[in-house]
Amino acid sequence: MEVGELYSSEQLDEAEGEQIESLKARSQQPIPDPDEWLEGELKRNILLTSVDAMLDWARRSSLWPVFCFPACCAFEFMTTAASRFDISRFGMEIIRASPRQADLMITAGTLTWKMAPQVKRIYDQMAEPKWVIAMGACAISGGIFRSSYSVVPGYNRIIPVDVYVPGCPPRPEALLYGIRMLQQKIAKMSLVTRG
Amino acid sequence: MTVLSGEELAHQIEKKFPKSIIESSPECLVVDSGFLLGVAAYLKKTPRLDFDYLSAITAVDYLDYFEVIYQLTSLRRNHSLVVKTRCYRRDNPSLPSVVSLWRSADFQEREIYDLFGISFEGHPNLKRIVLWDGFQGHPLRKDYL
Amino acid sequence: MVIKTEPFVVNIGPVHPSTHGVFRMRTTLDGEVVVDMEPVFGYLHRGIEKLAEERTYTGCIPLTDRLDYLASMTNNFAYVLAVEKLARIPVPERAEYIRVIMAELQRIASHLIAVGAFLNDCGAFMTPIVYMIREREKILDLFEMACGQRLTYNYMRVGGVSQDVPEEFVPALSKFLKVMPGWIDEYDQLLKENEILLARAKGVGILPKELAINIAASGPVLRASGVKWDIRRADPYSIYDRFEFDIPTGSVGDCYDRYRVRVEEMRQSVRILKQALKDLPEGEVRSDVPHRLHPPVGEAYAHIEAPRGELGFYLVSDGSIAPYRFHVRAPTLINLTALRDMMVGWKVADLIIIFGSIDICMAEVDR
Question: Which of B86, B104, B103 is nearest to B94 (CA)?
Fold first, then answer.
């Protein structure tokens, strides 16, 4: 039988190449870190609503990460999720393959320009509210590979990052500290500012 | 594993393919690119040599020429040999492909094409493999950046 | 009545839970059956070969860690062997034994993840891999005792290892070696005759012997196809010629054989470790190497039996402090050459299992 030549392999490659080059051209400056939680902190001193507190407790206690595991940090994330360090005590044992059902992206690994459009697409498909933890040196700034011709110098070129966890790779305890920090940040958010 | 001496094999190969050896040393054998396929087929099919396993292909950019190095091994006889070939052109360098003899050259030659720009005639699917389609240039050349 | 069907192209990956990293497969499917498959990778190409040309020889060791991050010790080992061959540097006895101990421990740790991930793909969602990560944690504790890191060790140096193992290491290792064979036997007993594993993995994704040799497959993939080729026996490096161990081989070359070969290799690694621990001599752990190494002009290729296959490093030196050319012979890239042949004709669910049984690590495929 004949496979319909709707998309030939060369056309697919070319389309992908154009997508990558256009994303690279648009991402020359880092995206500033989201700071709406600061406003919430100020508001919180004046007005403490129990609805806010309830929603924030619900959101931070069951953050579901999405699959985004390019490189070595992925294995430290997996051991954090395994029985010794046990991420499920923080409500995160379900790692969702579908971005529609997830609200946290833990970027574990080096980002290359070839992979960048796919990561951006996954991030765009996640529903609000969503947060990003940049795990490891490669996610923060490109790490040991910063001067390479094909590495994005940090995830904050293409998506806004909430918490940065340094290390190469960060120990599971460091990742858990970063997650705890994100939970405290979520606790300060108000209903009005974030979706 | 015995490492076969390039000099001894050079005599044998010169008899069959005259003027094909550029230089030879105990460590390696440098073959002229026009004779590469013939010499490779001879090395694979001769019963005493029997090089059925192509461990690795790699390329080096010595500014005057590109050198492509083939690490050959024989599993049955447990000996190995290093064969090299050179390409003196800088723009559009080209060499014959050994995919028809050893399929392990498939991805490795594509990678050399991607990173050095050396094209291999006879390769079934020569296109970029680790970099994306619109990337300009060939990064592992010494004059890139 | 013949139903009219039409094949269509489905993209699997690069963000996919079962592709062991960022790997993309453009599959042409006719219903559930795979008609054609094209692998696309390069999503993790970080330019390690170019970066190494700007670093000193010792400075390249952290870069080699990040190649196959599940087996960093063996990556370091292959690289320092290449530099020592290039610069003709001797290695003290104690350092040789410590290197072999680290390499074999690393082999066990890597195969635990390989087997666990394979079983995860087969459908045993999470249970085997969580148990195997528990055993791996014990090995990572030993590594942390020796060099302070859990994943990317940067432990071996040109001329030896960076520091000696502390006193607690040898008793801890002996304790581990007493317990580990029992755990391997227990996992094997639960899984070897398991109906689901046999139904899903036996006869699936066969790599015939001639094709395996032609594509230069290496490691468990080659041995499962019936070729008894192990670099530790064929071209012994370091002190492997002093140890007794068997080389497990398969017969058919299907996914089940690859799984069995890995489990048997874990047992053989424990055997080597017991012998190495018994003969561990005293002495210094690093020979005197200048801080900035200038090897003589020349080239060297050194290869070892890494957990995933034959890992080789080809180095060219021009007499300066940085390598002129640094090339990695990546076993997983070359093992993937016959992926299309192994997958055509099977269903989508088998695709995942075949891919999992080859056990790749994307950072090494793309470098």
Answer: B86
pLDDT in the model for residue C11:
86
Per-residue pLDDT tens over the stretch A118-143: 888 889 998 888 889 999 998 898 88
ipTM value for the complex: 0.91
B26-81 pLDDT, tens per residue? 888 888 888 888 888 888 888 888 888 999 999 999 888 899 999 999 888 888 88
Task: Calculate how close chain A gets to C133, using CA atoms only, in Å.
Answer: 7
First to last CA, chain A: 50
Chain A hits for B127, CB-CB cut-off 8 Å, are: 10, 13
Which residues span the domain enclosing C207?
8-366
Residue A59 near residue A103, CB atoms below 8 Å: yes
Q: How many domains does chain C have?
A: 1
C-alpha to C-alpha distances, C282 to C165, C276, C338, nearest whole angstrom: 11, 13, 47
pLDDT surpassing 70 at residue A41: no
Average pLDDT over residues A64-69: 84
Distances (CA, A) of C244 to A160, C99, C239: 55, 17, 11
- What is the C-alpha to C-alpha distance for residues C301 and A154, in angstroms, rounded to an integer? 35
Instruction: Give the predicted TM-score (pTM) of the model.
Output: 0.91
Structure tokens at C45: 């190409």
Query: What is the domain partition of chain B in residue ranges?
Result: 2-121
**C-beta atoms of A70 and C21 within 8 A:** yes
> Secondary structure of chain A: what % helix, strand, coil (to 5)?
50, 10, 45
Question: What's the average model confidence in pLDDT over B127-135?
Answer: 85
Partner-chain residue, chosen from A71, A82, A147, that has the shortest CB–CB distance to C133: A82
A144 Cβ partners below 8 Å, 6+ apart?
A: A137, A138, A168, C51, C62, C63, C66
> What is the distance between the alpha carbons of residues C157 and C60, in angstroms, rounded to a whole number?
10
Chains that touch C (3 or more CB pairs under 8 A): A, B
Interface test with B, best of C22, C41, C50 (most B CBs within 10 A): C50
Pick the CATH number of B2-121 from 3.40.50.1360, 3.40.710.10, 3.40.30.10, 3.30.460.80: 3.30.460.80
The span from the CA of C41 to the CA of C13, in Å, is 10
Provide the CATH number for the domain around residue C255. 1.10.645.10
Put simply, whether C173 touches A (Cβ < 8 Å) is: no
